[in-house]
Every structure is written in structure tokens, then in C-alpha cells.
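Backbones bend. We report:
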Amino acid sequence: MEFNILSILAVIVVAFLAGMEGILDQFQFHQPIIACSLVGLATGHLSECIMLGGALQLIAMGWANIGAAVAPDAALASVASAIIYVKTGTFTDEGQNLAIVAAITLGTVGLALTMVVRTLSVAIVHRADAAAEKGDFRGVEFWHMVALACQGLRIAIPATFLLFLPTETVQGALAALPDWFTKGMAIGGGFVVAVGYAMVINMMATPEVWPFFFLGFALAPLNQLTLIATGIIGVVLAVVYIRLSQNTGGSGGGGGQASSGDPLGDILNDY
């Protein structure tokens, strides 16, 4: 699929914002679910890119900087995989797996661009320090914006290259990948999804939350439940939980143990 000029400009803007948000971390444009969705909105394939972004988001939850080990670049992986996914035009499970394989590969390669920008930032910081010594606030702001723009260009330049790359070249490169590589990366990506989800559960694992986890797993296989019905169930449970907390929070006296204000926590702690 070839892009028109408006789609190209919109995708480049999204890539630039995703690169800056990788440092600012304020509006979360660099998150896969956001970046892929915006690329899909710009190219006219919103639903397909949302599905891709959701799959990549589960994988990215398992990416973390540990010691000297640096995680893959989630922003570059998201934008590049969405562009490749739309360019190939294969909106199937196989096409999504190929896009995820490309995302993991490009996200790892993108670390080289990250190192280049960080090395360049050292010189920019020295320029900003020199401006600060002179009391030049405009100079400090200017070099701050230059450093931020470098972060945006770190994603925008590869995205522009992919946008102008012929579709046949992209399809040929993906078709040339051996089966052992694509299947291996898909399996590895599945493992990373499990690790990411386990990390989220580990962070949220409290006695108060576990009953809702189990209830969610019990309701998940019920295909008859629509998204609206699931939302209503969640709202009702939240209201019941808040009312129980309010009713038991002030009645901790009497002969029994004092209440902590959390009814589910009190019940689970008793056991």
C-alpha cells in the first residue's frame, strides 16, 4: 500500500511526538497502543493497528532496563511495525506476527540510534551550561529544545525512510525471512507477553485485588458478555466495594478486631 502526502506528514508527526515522549513520558505517545493507533488513524487502518498496538503493548510490558541491559526502543518498534503492517496490506494473524517480529528486531536495532542521540546530548548539555554561565536563558531554552528535537528525529527519520520505501521491497524482505526466525521470534514474543503480564500482576497483587482478578478470569470465557455488560459489572463492583468500605470504616469498635476500612482485606486476613 502506498501513502498519500497527508498520511505521510501525519505519520511523521506521530513518529516525532513518539520520539520526544520516550524522554518526556507525559502524554504516553511512545506507548505501542497509542503510537500504533495514531499511525492507523493517519493511514486509514485504525482497527487493524489498534489490534497490533495491543499485542505490542503486552510485549512492551516485559521490556525494562535492568542494570547495564537496555530494553528495546518501544517507540521505534511501535511506529515502524505499524508502518510495515499497513504497507504489506496483510491484515491477518500471520501478517501481525511478521509485524511483531519486525518490531522486536527494529526495536533492538534502534538502541544504536539511542546511543548516538545520547552521545550528541553530551555536547548539547555543555552548550546549555555555557549559556547558563552567561545568564542567557534563551540559550538554555534553545539547547533544551534542540536536545528534545533530536529525540524526536531519532524516530521520525527511520519512519520517513520506511514510508518512502517501496511496498514490494518491504514485502520481499519479510518474505525472505526464514521460518525458523519468524516462528522463533513469535514464540519468544509470546513468552515476553507472559512475563509482562506477570510483572503487572506482581505490582498489583494485594489482598484487596485478588478477588477481582479471579472474577475477571471467570468472566473471560463468557462470550455472551458484551463490552458494555462487562463495564456495568465493573462499575457495580466498584460501587459495592466503596459502600462496604464506608460502612465498615467507622464501625471498628465493639468486642472484635478493629477494621482497617477494607472489607475484602479484613476477610482475607482472617484466613
In short: The chain is about 75% helix and 0% strand. The CA atoms of residues 128 and 143 lie 6 Å apart. The two ends are 60 Å apart (CA to CA).
